[in-house]
Specification:
Helices cover 38% and strands 27% of the residues. Strands 1-2-3-4-5 form a five-stranded mixed sheet, sandwiched between helices.
Length: 191
């Protein structure tokens, strides 16, 4: 499926690019590999999670906050994925770069994306009675793994290194039912 989608994208969106250039082919193949590995990781996560995707590409529009001094701030954006389990919500933001979740950054008014997403989602009637279980960044890229630094060059060590690269970074509700529901086998690969 990944390769058919990538090929469609190549032929229908990137149709006017010079596909014979080495740099273009390198970037295209890297994008396809990132797409494939991220999709595999998400499928593996969903197999052990009771949380299921409810919405993808959730649009935030007309969210206005009043600020001290008579000012207001309008927020727009797109939440990549909203997962739901019972009365709980998990908000996922895919990152191709190196964004880390930091309480200090939030306290200092930086990296407000996930908290703003939470406010936006909770402002919707369908989610207002649900509790936020997790706000997470998930990498979407190709892991850079130095095979020589692995304990041994086994498939198991490689899978552990890939899982570490894709480990979710964020904040999780400190509740046993929620944590178990996020990752039922409790191996710490996804939370």
């Amino acid at each position: 499926i990944v390769y058919s989608i990538s090929n469609w994208y190549l032929n229908n969106v990137l149709f006017d690019y010079d596909k014979n250039k080495k740099r273009f082919l390198y970037l295209y193949n890297r994008m396809t590999q990132a797409f494939k590995l991220t999709a595999i990781n998400v499928v593996r996560e969903l197999k052990v999670s009771k949380f299921k995707p409810k919405e993808l590409e959730f649009k935030i529009e007309d969210l206005v906050f009043d600020i001290k001094g008579g000012f207001s701030c309008q927020v727009t954006g797109i939440v990549d994925r909203i997962d739901v389990f019972k009365d709980y919500i998990k908000i996922v933001d895919y990152k191709t770069g190196g964004t880390d979740f930091s309480y200090d950054d939030i306290y200092n008014g930086l990296s407000l994306q996930l908290p703003l997403y939470a406010l936006a989602v909770k402002s919707q009637d369908r989610y207002k009675d649900k509790q936020i279980a997790a706000l997470v960044y998930q990498r979407a890229g190709v892991p850079k793994i130095d095979y020589l630094k692995l304990k041994d060059n086994t498939e198991n060590e490689y899978v552990k290194a890939v899982d570490k690269y894709y480990a979710r970074d964020g904040v999780f509700l400190s509740d046993q039912e929620v944590l178990y529901s996020l990752e039922a086998d409790n191996n710490g690969r996804f939370i």
